[in-house]
# Entry
Amino acid sequence: MRKLLVPAVLVLAFSSTAAADPAIDTVSPVSVINADFPDPDVLQVGSTYYAYSTSSWAGRVPVATAPSPAGPWSVQGDALPARPSWAAGDHGFWAPDVSRRADGLYLMYFTGRSTANGRMCIGAATSAGPTGPFQATSNSPLVCDPAEGGAIDPSSFVDSNGARYLLYKNDGNAVQRPAIVWLQQVAADGVSFIGGRTELIRNNHPDEHGVIEAPVLVRRASQYVLFYSGGVFTGNSYFTSYAVSRGINGPYTKAFRPLMTTQTVNGAVQGPGGADVLGERIFFHGWVDRTRWMYVAELGWANDYPVVRGSRVVYEAERGAINHAEIRRNVPNASDGAVVAKLDFADSWVDITVYAPGSGNYTVHARYAAGFGDAQHLVTVNGGTQHVVNYPNSGWDNWRVAALDVNLVPGWNTLRFQHLTRWAELDQIEVA
# Structure
């Protein structure tokens, strides 16, 4: 999370306390603030949860409180009532981040528009309490380079050795330059820089539409996980993804698939993004009637990789364990361009290992092509229960989806797709 270090242990299932919370014990993410509350940042102090958002009807930096992640949430007012002298306007303050310093003061990073150059820049403010009032620490921005498009989306991180860092994004897409997520070490006060900054990731994928933003860093036992958003926030193209690295300074490798999209949550949230992580929860916003509501979902870890309950996970068949079959590459319209082919014999199969956050019934969506009539695979779950999945004739390289309900156990499960009748190629599976 941004504020507190996640314990460096491997978690293979959601905790019983998470499952026992009736308000969020559901497959789909749940909206907990049904009003404009964009880019939520969430902090826990004692038994109370505090959330901060981009400017809205509630103020320059709205703050809300709740007794639990599921709420009920109550908007308390404006945590930054006095406009910083270097910033313009009473609104247009973006993506705040609040953490507690070692001296007991609360530190807020925020984004405002500079009166000097017109670009969005990062400032800092402190308060004796989490609801404010926060007062600016300086008459000038903390980070502001107009040649890079300015700077937005600050986020704090404290490592296991006590070192404190500021993450942010230069707003390159505002000036037709690269959008880059930067890491800057800071002193215990959070505003004094130590050394130079380090580039972590930049926009380089078509689905990002030139935009990456909203960085949040988490440390796990084996790696650092950098959450970020991409795409255009005003609709369905916005998404949440992540990148991983063995060291805090990188190099970071982006996930093969986003963590949350409109499609992976089956349309329950439009454009899930602007996320923050707090313990076993992920908070984020979604686009609703030209506003952005705050949502919460359960977060689990599979070998130190994040899994969000209610977001479908894609597994490429060609990355499974294959027996008496082969991988066909450069396949038209196939996911990642490859499929498992020649599943033609009694001993032809592919084992795909999938993660389940809890026990129960899951739907497996198998993307296939069958070119010589209807085909079937025998699907064995964890070496025991067997099912038959039917593949109606589709024609080769004409990919369709067949659904199959299976029961999975918490943690890792192995699904074996084995030849049964006729012939079908397997592209990928999604587990919901």
